[in-house]
Amino acid sequence: MTRWLVISDNHGDRDILVSLKAALKPDTIFHCGDSEMTADDPWFKGAYVVQGNMDFDSQLPLVQTPTVDGCKVLLTHGHYDEVHWDLTKLKLHADQEQADLVFFGHTHELAAEEAGGHVFVNPGSISQPRGEYRQLGGTCALITVTPTAWVVQYYTRDAQPVPELKFTFTRNQKG
Ligand SMILES: [Mn+2]
Fold this sequence. Notes:
- With 175 residues, the protein is mostly beta strands.
- Helices cover 12% and strands 34% of the residues.
- The chain has two helices and twelve strands.
- Strands 3-2-1-10-11-12 form a six-stranded mixed β-sheet, covered by helices on one side. Strands 4, 5, 6, 7, 8 and 9 form a six-stranded mixed β-sheet that branches.
- The two termini are 20 Å apart.
- The model has no long low-confidence stretch (mean pLDDT 96).
- The protein binds manganese (II) ion (MN).
- Manganese (II) ion binds at residues 9, 34, 52, 54, 106, 108.
């Protein structure tokens, strides 16, 4: 069982990344972009991170597709997949990559759903939230990976779990 932190769109608010890493102690970190930090920032050491539309360090990759703990992940900010519109393009991208999990940001609205054999997680913006849950003041997602499930639990900036924002997805058993 491992715990992954998925976080996005802190827009230069580096302090919140530091405090959440310390509080949640994740095994692996995925940053979905718009950090407004540079690729060599020590906070990113050991983390998977991509470039958002507000990131100008070309050392940051646009897409990452690592296999972590036996799960194929598609990590992307989402602006090139036009996620502001709907998830049509992102779903095609996920099909192409045969991704189990897709982590994206850009909309600043949290979302967790299964579609077409992929689990899509938008952690929301930790610093500039929009949409239905913006009153939480910013969110990230902590995913507990077990052999049979991904449990997505959203957290607030003060590292408190939001009870109604917990989603369990059964892992496809691929032989
Ligand atoms: Mn953003």
